[in-house]
Amino acid sequence: MSEPSASRTVVVTNEEGVHARAATMIAELARRFEAKVLLTKNSERVEATDVMQILLLGAGQGEQVLIEAVGTDAEEVLEALVRLFAENFNENTENTK
């Protein structure tokens, strides 16, 4: 019997794209779950728990990223990551100068 899996494509709407702070948030969130999570942009696929790999994707505003999760909590981690992308990595709620 195979492990549960889920995937969803998101569009990076954050003006800065997936920058260092955003990549750190993705990796920290992915590490909270048991499922293995991969991010894919074009043909490049990386581990969602590795900040440097996420940065190397170079996902800019308007680009699509496929999030794939395999494991018992695949659906939960997928939903959490989709929400993080949708909320622009919480940057809309920060005070700006």
Write the layout of secondary structure elements.
Layout: E1 5-11, H1 20-31, E2 36-41, E3 44-47, H2 51-57, E4 64-70, H3 74-86
Descriptive key words:
about 100 residues; about 35% helix; four-stranded antiparallel beta sheet; alpha+beta; 3 helices
Could you please describe the fold and organization of this structure?
- The protein has 97 residues and is of the alpha+beta class.
- It has a single domain, classed as HPr-like (Histidine-containing Protein, Chain: A, 2-Layer Sandwich).
- 33% of the residues lie in helices and 25% in strands.
- The protein contains three helices and four strands, in the order E-H-E-E-H-E-H.
- The chain has helices at 20-31, 51-57, 74-86; strands at 5-11, 36-41, 44-47, 64-70.
- The chain has a four-stranded antiparallel sheet, with helices on one face.
- The longest helix has 13 residues, at 74-86.
